[in-house]
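Worked example

This section walks through a single chain of length 102. The input is the sequence exactly as stored; nothing has been trimmed or padded.
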Amino acid sequence: MFCMIAVIFSSTRTPEDDAGYAAMAERMDDLARAQDGFVAVESVRDPATRRGITVSYWRDEASARAWRQVAEHLQAQTQGRERWYSEYSVTVAEVSRTHRFP
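Given that input, the structure is written out below as tokens.
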């Protein structure tokens, strides 16, 4: 049976330090892609509302949990809470099927 894990991160950005945030987001993207069990990531943000969503996909729950504990990712999470996000939520879901067009 097909199954992977989706980690859905929804957030609203503060106006603080856009350049620093962009650099950290790029670093986290690169770091996630290098992790064992990484499958894919998709991210969008509305510049008007500063509301965004990032969905990362992982081979299994162990891979997603391991990513959550990477030291540099933990530092980014702390900075996010202190500087870059006015609010956020994280949802973890099992993906049992996916379809694409075309």
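What to look for: The domain at 4-95 is CATH 3.30.70.100 (Alpha-Beta Plaits).
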